[in-house]
Amino acid sequence: MKETLPDLARIANGLRADVLRMVHVGGDGHPGPALSVADIVATLYFGMLRVDPERPDWPDRDRLILSKGHACPVVYAALVRLGFMPSEALGTLRGLHSMLQGHPDMVKTPGIDMTTGSLGNGLSIGLGMALAGRYSGRDYAVHVIAGDGEMQEGIIWEAVMAAAHHGAGRLTLWIDNNGWQSGGRVTEIAGLEPIAPKLAAFAWHVQEIDGHDHEAILDAAQVAAAIADRPSAIVAHTVKGKGVPFIENDNSWHKRVPTADELERALVALGEA
Amino acid sequence: MVTFKGTREAFSAAMMELAEQDSRYVLVLADSLAAMRAARFAERYPERVFDVGIAEQNAVGVAAGLASCGLIPFVATYAGFITMRACEQVRTFCAYPGLNVKFVGANGGLFAGEREGVTHQFFEDLGIMRAIPCITIVTPSDPAQTRQATHAIAQVNGPCYLRIGSGREHDLFDADEPFELGKARVLAEHGGGNDVALLTTGLVLNRVQEAAERLAAEGIGATVAEVHTLRPLDREAIAALARRTGAVVTIEDHNVLGGLGSAVAEVIAEEGLAAPLVRVGLQDVFPESGEAESLLDAYGMGITDVMAAARRAMERARSR
Fold first, then answer.
1. B276 Cα to chain A: minimum distance (Å)
2. Fold of the A5-269 domain
3. Is A155 in Cβ contact with B57 (below 8 Å)?
4. What order do you get walking across the sheet with B185-189 strand by strand?
5. How confident is the model over A157-186, as pLDDT tens digits?
6. Contact B67/A at CB under 8 A
């Protein structure tokens, strides 16, 4: 499961293509935020995480919480590619009786470690998982992926404070820092830059990387994993809609369904036509 | 034999007993260790206490994470801070995934919140929790039953809410009196108990018992039944009592909207029963600070209020 860097790039674009196909077929969903985080999701699932599709409830597995749950099609695509679910599931996104809910559901979807979608909550839950691991003597890692806009939620900062106080190693917060939120640019709505020094001031270990550079993602993850006595944040600078030129930085794609023509053009751009 | 004073100590004593049996039981606090009388627990099991400070939403989120990894967290702090401040975390991240998280809410009602005033008197919690699917809801009536109820919800594999008080509760039951989750319990049938059913939940049971005795002295035969579990609700027992008496009074230290009164009204209406209902409780107003017993008297939950409600229900039944 530990893929090479060129393979990670190929996989990430494959996930992007699956996202757009899913949203097109399902008729609803959030392509922009999913494309933005595709390289991080691909690198974690295919280059790093200790997971086993045969045992989705394996107690020693690494955990991934997609706190920005609306980006879930990219995680669904990864879980299918890993073998947690049959590929036919991808055609049922957001449909009645689908195992793929509009936002992640840990009961309905094998491989989803936590139900998410209401923003801001993933870090608290990840902290609980990390504390449970320490209490139980298990060494699994917990990864939480949040959006930069999501950092406006108050509960995030409650968790930031508590995670530092409890010295929660094995807990890594990835911030998909694409600069956009549902209603527009983060800086124009309720800006919180600079994020990294704020987290550092809370005694977190902080790194800043290019969130589309698979090698940088892997390196940062490994550095974070070695920090045992405090939580770690990785501010990943990303482009919303990354990989498809006409979607990149066009916030109308926060939630939008590609037409057949748009899908075809996007797949060409991704090398997945 | 454990000894404790009040429902908070009773909960804490039960936690000690649970922790001795099983290392999965842990406590999640929001600077509520002293309030929940958990110092002894923390001394004995320091690694099982997760205090996140004054941050209830985070506390419930952390509990969800702990539960998802197989532990059985009890989140213990003030009732309103769980059911209102952290309502969404309770609903979306514990109840919806069916995680095995227990919520213990102190200061449920005016009697418990008393002199603190409205900010610390919680009379909406039962209605809020009833509106969220899948949460077991328990409101024991005294310290001994709180201990039993804590053990009972520990046996449920899923989210549960336990409403407790402040520490000044009346002792009503023997320590070994069992607590049967989901079953209404008939405690008295004065003169056969066929004139009126007094259905109550929580820490006002002593008042209801006293009212029933005084009604008996007036020749009114009341049945006193404790509905300590609001979910799963013992609909059969409630309907049977309504059928038998034809006049029903609910008594709870909670707003009359959303709690026991609403639950019983739903049963009576849906079963098509011809039984007038009078709801004793906070009459949809904000109360104020005050001494515990006199607060209940001032806000419609006095013994004479229960008696008047019984007479009114019977009168309405007669005039149908």
1. 42
2. Rossmann fold (3.40.50)
3. yes
4. B185-189, B222-226, B196-201, B248-255, B277-282
5. 999 999 999 999 999 999 999 999 999 999
6. yes
CATH number of the domain within which B203 lies: 3.40.50.920
Find residues 110-129 of chain A whose CB sits inside 8 Å of chain B. 113-115, 117-118, 121, 123-129
ipTM entry: 0.97
Distance CA A207, CA A219 (A): 10
Choose one of B101, B128, B163: the last residue of a domain. Answer: B163
pLDDT tens string B52-62 = 999 999 999 99
Of A138, A154, A162, the CB nearest to B52: A162
Which residues from B are below 8 Å from A58, CB to CB?
Answer: none
Mean pLDDT value across residues A114-129:
98
pLDDT value of residue B4: 85
Per CB-CB distance under 8 Å, the chain B contacts of A106 are 68, 97
Locate the chain B residue with the closest alpha carbon to A159: B58
Residues B150, B240, single domain; the answer is no
Residue A1 is predicted with a pLDDT of 55
Residue B138 is part of which domain span? 6-163
Q: At B13, is the pLDDT very low, low, confident or very high (cuts 50, 70, 90)? A: very high
